[in-house]
Design goal:
This protein has two domains: 38 residues; 223 residues, 3-Layer(aba) Sandwich (Rossmann fold). It has nine helices and twelve strands. The longest helix is centred in the C-terminal third of the chain and has 18 residues. With 313 residues, the protein is an alpha/beta fold. It starts with a helix and ends with a helix. A hairpin with a 5-residue loop joins β1 and β2. α3 packs across α4.
Length: 313
């Protein structure tokens, strides 16, 4: 019959794809709108709205977190029943960074580390990773290859003496060149590091978000996954971020509200001195600064700033 042929042809035809839902996001402040707007009403910037695909993944669980033994279910507690035991901080060899952070790295904290291109962000973070000898550190890079990171590590430890034992020179620092958060969390689940460094947050992308890396949706989603991992496993996470031409950290402002600490690395890259300051710190003061001197073998601490900043007559 003719209607049987029509029914068969309809059943064999490909299904119509669902229409993708898109939203316009401001690339400066993260505000969203259902249609394109020339001027953002939140930050008053012009031509910053970009259309992005909004799709919610079916699996909202972050890989590598549910299987950890340190995960605990949150339960409501009375205020007087909360334990006030002193929180242990992870000591770092760098006195300048330790003072700016408030005495060390707090377990489970999410730290955003921003600075201009070429200022020395990756060098300082690699120095921290190499010198934490007793900790297993995972350095995730989405901008450089393993060979480039190894060359920088060689320059950092150039003055450390004869290269007899690589473990003593480079510590327990593991390098992973990956940008997919799904693959990163798989390696985290296998390695179980004590400290995670991501260089940089603008290069990461998640398969559950249908937008390009560096967009507002990707930055917010990837930072949310890393925040969940840090809090549930008590693993501190450093996020390296880029700086816009106005001097603020690139990406939505909600990223600065999500993290526990925001560090700014400032200075003129044509000169040797750098200043590390904290613009937000939930575990310490924001009035402390650290001073470094850039050399061929990395960044060295300036223990006596008066000798540098005051001119001798």
């Amino acid at each position: 019959m003719w209607y049987n042929k029509i029914e068969t042809s309809l059943s064999n035809s490909p299904k119509k794809l669902a229409k993708l839902k898109t939203t316009y996001f401001c690339q400066n402040c993260g505000a969203q709108s259902g249609k394109w707007i020339g001027k953002c009403p939140s930050c008053n910037e012009w031509n910053t709205y970009v259309e992005e695909v909004v799709s919610k993944g079916t699996d909202s669980k972050t890989p590598g977190i549910a299987s950890t033994s340190t995960q605990r279910a949150a339960k409501p507690q009375l205020v007087d029943e909360i334990n006030l035991s002193e929180q242990h901080r992870i000591p770092v060899y760098d006195k300048e960074l330790s003072r700016v952070l408030g005495g060390g790295i707090v377990p489970g904290s999410l730290i955003l580390f921003g600075g201009e291109p070429g200022i020395g962000k990756s060098t300082l973070m690699l120095q921290i990773a190499i010198n934490l000898k007793n900790l297993k550190v995972l350095y995730v890079s989405g901008e450089e290859s393993e060979q480039q990171i190894r060359m920088r590590a060689e320059r950092i430890v150039a003055n450390a003496g004869p290269k007899t034992d690589a473990t003593k020179l480079f510590g327990s620092c593991y390098v992973l060149t990956e940008t997919s958060t799904q693959n990163i969390f798989k390696q985290i689940e296998l390695l179980e590091p004590n400290l995670l460094i991501v260089d940089s947050i603008q290069t990461l992308h998640s398969a559950h978000i249908e937008s390009s890396p560096g967009s507002v949706s990707q930055i917010r989603g990837c930072a949310g996954d890393l925040l969940k991992y840090a809090k549930e496993t008590a693993t501190p996470v450093f996020l390296i971020g880029h700086i816009t031409k106005e001097g603020s950290i690139a990406g939505p402002k909600v990223l600065e509200h999500m993290v526990d600490t925001v560090l700014q690395f400032e200075g003129d890259r044509h000169h040797v001195y750098r200043i590390l300051r904290s613009t937000k710190n939930r575990f310490g003061s924001t009035s402390e600064i650290g001073i470094y001197e850039m050399s061929g073998s990395g960044l060295s601490e300036v223990s006596n700033p008066s000798e540098v900043l005051l001119s001798n007559r």
